[in-house]
Model the fold of this input.
Amino acid sequence: MKRAFALWSVAFVLTVAFLVWQKMSGPTYPVRGSFELGEVEIPARLTRSGITGEDMVIKVDVAEALQAGKTVTGNVIWRRYPTDDPWQTLPMVPRDDDLQAALPHQPMAGKLEYRVELSDGTDTSILPTGGSHAVARFKGGVPALVLIFHVSLLVLGFLFSTGAGLEGLTGGAGLRTLSRLALGCLLVGGLILGPIVQKYAFDAFWTGWPFGQDWTDNKLAVGALLWLLAVWRTREALPGRPRGRWFAVAAMVGIFVIFAIPHSIHGSTYDYATGEHIQRM
Done:
């Protein structure tokens, strides 16, 4: 009992840690920072994901600056990405305690790069800093149920993968069963529901090899192949006879590497010159 508790505790902690990393490292995670106007600091989050058919609203809460007696104005400077379009300036409009601007909606996988400038008449502050820009990608709406099953099965796949690998390391009795569960979740969640999600979001079932270079598609395919091999090698594993356990350990490590790669890196991008979808950082 203590061994099982320790094993699943480690598997759970690792799963949560990698999920947090996937969320925070991906290209759709909001840009966080602060505007500084004199002695007033205004925290902000700049969104990097929009829905096709809907303008993307950029909001900055300036309540603290208003309470300090400042009059704050703002602009969003933007253009399509990746293009050499001239930069356009969109004035922000006050709404209660916010300054807001709506960037125009784009086709599936279309991207905009932008920055926000705030001024109180004396000081001007820009976010992101250092001359960089936030890049937002637009996608089609995905049915909630499809997305829930997709994400849930991938989470379970990672959990069972870790559990199976740890069973392999310790010679546990659940090696064969957990290996099969890991493979099943990765196949259904990643290679069946994944393309369905992508079709809704970017109008393409598969943009990995051999049709494209989408890293998310490719890494899920590699992960499933690793566990397919591990399931084959552990097919005769029994309690006290953990045959093929090092293949399960290797597959677990492979999944760690795969999930360490930020989600949606080198994913679908709308090419405004050709009207086609390409893969780009």
In short: Residues 31-139 form a domain with the Immunoglobulin-like fold (CATH 2.60.40.10). The first helix runs from residue 2 to 25. The CA atoms of residues 192 and 224 lie 11 Å apart.
